[in-house]
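hi! just following up on the protien thing from before. the input was this:
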Amino acid sequence: MIKKLDHSNEDVAKQIFTVFQNAYKIEAQLIGVVDFPPLLRGVKDIENSTTRFYGFIDNECLAAVIEITIEDQHLGIDSLTVEPHYFRQGIARKLINYVLELIDFSEAIVETAVVNLPAIKLYKQHGFVECKRWTPSHGIEKLAMSVGSAL
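and the predicted 3d structure came back as:
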């Protein structure tokens, strides 16, 4: 079941934080970095965020989280994380489908590391195409992908 999460609630923020930490540790290994900026985000950062969070709940357990922003019909997928023991069950795909159907948007955009091939493949399956590459100050080469009428 997918539902909107009240991330301003400390207990919910802690659950989101746990999913983020577990998933981002795996992603950091996948892309070959030790210092991975998403791992620095704390519970209070999540609680105070102005973004929206949706979670996939399995037997009352938070199995995955998608974080989005919406501004002027532009949908930003800020994060998509799945608890490692829920990998390869189609949950990330379900969350992407959910927000793409829920939100009325003209363009959706997501960013990921260039070497994160599983994420790139997943977004391509939803019609996203690469639109930009760059290397931010933390040194992890990134790419942006978008889908929608602005293409």
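The beta strands are 2-5, 52-58, 61-71, 74-82, 107-113, 129-134, 142-148.
Residues 10-31 form the longest helix (22 residues).
cheers
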